[in-house]
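To: structure subgroup
Subject: Chain for Friday's discussion

All,

I'm putting the inputs and outputs inline so they're searchable in the archive.
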Amino acid sequence: MTQTPGEPPSPVGPGQPAAEENGGLPAARGAGRLSASVVRKGMFGAHTTGDTSGYGRLQVHKLPPLSSEPPYGGYFDAVAQALGSALEGAGIGFSDAIERVVVDRGEITFHVRRDKLVEVADKLLHDPALRFEICAGVSGVHYPDDAGRELHAVYHMLSITHNRRIRLEVSTPDADPHIPSLTGVYPANNWHERETWDFFGIVFDGHPALTRIEMPDDWRGHPQRKDYPLGGIPVEYRGTKVPPPDQRRSYS
């Protein structure tokens, strides 16, 4: 910041809000954002070629859901058979709990029906033939065009006993974003589920304290959803405002 010789220094430093006329108090940070409504603009908020983020010409092609048939190869077959036997022992059919199985890029994913997630996780942890002692947390994924299955929760499971890794995936509609909490089976999932709720808005039923963990408590919306405005909040740096990417000028 350049200062004219003889001019007294400005009381407002870089990045600090300017004082308002009302009593000279600084404006409440984020007041304008909190009063504005969250507007969905579509994929990444890009509508014109002036979008300097690089997503202006992005095209998303919907692929059919993948599904694999046994034998899956390696220890995947042993895990699937052991899980099926454990579920049948509890009076639950394999197809009643597992929608489909996908083997891709050397990894296996069990797509679990959300109402059976806790039962499946319990068998993975306690059955001697499975023993997946560690759930490395849950990650959220948002597919806006996957009607009725827009939100996904992905769990990475590790068996130290058998040195095996698998993945669980659960889908839920945006209109009813509820998935059972796994904190009763894997207590360490507590903060992972809070983070996924914070960023994606997936409600984990039964969680002991489902509150924000990354964003401020008064934040509106869930910023890692793909329909959340990209850079929709103007950025101010040293008195210069940087507009959102979809409002910037581009040069060629």
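Points worth raising on Friday:
The first helix runs from residue 31 to 35.
Helices lie at 31-35, 76-89, 94-97, 117-126, 189-200.

D.
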